[in-house]
Design a protein that fits this description.
The chain is mostly helical. 65% of the residues lie in helices and 8% in strands. Helix 2 packs across helix 3 (48-60).
C-alpha cells in the first residue's frame, strides 16, 4: 500500500482513500486482518489518533470490522467491496473524461485514445516479458 501523503487533503481522509484502494484492488482481501493502529501509524508516519480516526470511519462505511479480542478485519461483504470498486472506477473515469474534455477531446476521441493507449501499454509489457 502506497504510504506517501499530500499536504492539501486531511491526512485521515488520505489514509482512508489508500485503504479503500487496497481493499478494492484486493491487496487487502476480504476477511484479512488489518495491522494494529500503532503499526499502521508507524508505517504512515502519523499520529495514532489520526490513524484511529481513519479506521473508525472505514468501519462506519462497513469496509472494516472490529472483533474485540482479535483485531480489525476487512469486511467479508463482497457485494460492498464490489460496489466500492465500481464507485472508485466511476470517479476515476469521470475525472479522466473531465480532463480530456478540457483538452478538447470529443467522446469518440477519448474512447479511441484510451483503447490505443491500453493496447500500447499491453504491447510494451508483453515485449518486456518476452525479452526478460
Amino acid at each position: 500500500m502506497e504510504k506517501n501523503l499530500q499536504e492539501n487533503v486531511p491526512i485521515y481522509m488520505q489514509i482512508m482513500n489508500k485503504v479503500r484502494e487496497a481493499i478494492a484492488s484486493g491487496e487487502l482481501a476480504p476477511g484479512m486482518r488489518v495491522a494494529s493502529v500503532r503499526e499502521l501509524a508507524g508505517e504512515f508516519e502519523v499520529n495514532p489518533n489520526t490513524m484511529q480516526r481513519a479506521l473508525n470511519e472505514l468501519e462506519r462505511e462497513g469496509l472494516l470490522v472490529s472483533e474485540r479480542t482479535s483485531g480489525r478485519f476487512v469486511t467479508n461483504d463482497t457485494k460492498r467491496i464490489s460496489e466500492l470498486k465500481i464507485r472508485m472506477a466511476s470517479e476515476t473515469a469521470d475525472r479522466f473524461r473531465k480532463e480530456m474534455t478540457v483538452l478538447g477531446y470529443s467522446e469518440s476521441e477519448m474512447i479511441d485514445f484510451f483503447l490505443k493507449r491500453g493496447k500500447a501499454v499491453s504491447e510494451k509489457v508483453f515485449d518486456h516479458e518476452r525479452i526478460g
